[in-house]
Amino acid sequence: MSARMYAVGALLALLVPALAGAWPVDLSVPLEPGKEHFHKLATVDWVEVEDASVATAEVLPGSNELLLTGHSTGRTLLLLYAEGRFAVWRLTVGTPPPEDVASRLAAARKACPDLKTTEGEERGLSATVKDAACRTALMELLRTDAYVARELDLTFDLPVLQEQLASVVAGLQPLGLEARYSGAGIVLSGTATPEVHHRALWELFRRSVGRVPLSDEVEVKAPEAPAAAPDAGPAVKAEPPIQVEVLPPPKKRKARP
């Protein structure tokens, strides 16, 4: 691996899960409380919403159409998975309190001296991530609605990538899974239940900055059902034992003369 790694924003269409998830989100979707919103996806295996009290998501049977429903004012995240790739969307329901983007952008400019932003049709953010301070400041900024993944152009110094990988590994260890770099991407491996696999993808997203190609080699197995007790057949009511009364032998009588 070279001294620096170049990571670009998602190049695939927004409705197709991207190469891998990391801050910022791939798409920001506004919703209204109590109303439904439909998205047609190219392909999708499953979806999971972080906070179902804010919004829910359902893949309609027999199609790749996604039904989003807003429930209460707020923000939540939606994880989408298809064919070994995943993406994360932000679902914003109603008008939640505004985020403090200005102060976070100022902190990121201070920590990343060459950070540049553009507006208009070429809207985006570029920076060289040289140290942990820059990475941390960018993560705080990119957790907001300020940018989506395709608007990023980041260059990482190798020590920062190693630090980011260490964070990912720490998040995966309690789940029994492993992560390593292969070229410019991260390889996830191990065996997991669907629930643990989902948690691993959330960990990768939350601990990473910028787009990182993913090779998902996790073997997903359904949890084993508990062994059923052997069928003992219908219960039979035990009858009480028969009580037999033993009578004493009859007394001998003398014959009369």
What kind of sheet is the major sheet? 4 strands, mixed
Rg over C-alpha atoms, rounded to the nearest angstrom: 31 Å
Mean pLDDT equals 85
Number of helices: 4
Task: List the quaternary state of the chains.
Answer: single chain
- In the sheet with the most strands, the strands line up as 1-11-10-9
Distance between the termini: 131 Å
Question: Spans with pLDDT under 50 lasting ≥5 residues?
Answer: 1-19, 252-257
Structural class: alpha+beta
Describe this structure as you would to a colleague.
Residues 223-239 have a biased composition (Low complexity). This is Pilus formation protein N-terminal domain-containing protein. With 257 residues, the protein is α+β, with helices and mostly antiparallel strands. It is 19% helix and 32% strand. The protein has four helices and 14 strands. The protein has helices at residues 101-111, 132-142, 158-172, 194-206; strands spanning 4-8, 27-31, 36-40, 46-49, 55-59, 65-70, 74-82, 85-93, 116-118, 124-129, 152-157, 178-182, 185-192, 214-220. The strands form four sheets. Strands 1-11-10-9 form a four-stranded mixed β-sheet. It has a four-stranded mixed β-sheet with strand order 2-8-7-4, with helices on one face. The longest helix has 15 residues, at 158-172. It starts with a strand and ends in a 37-residue tail after the last strand.
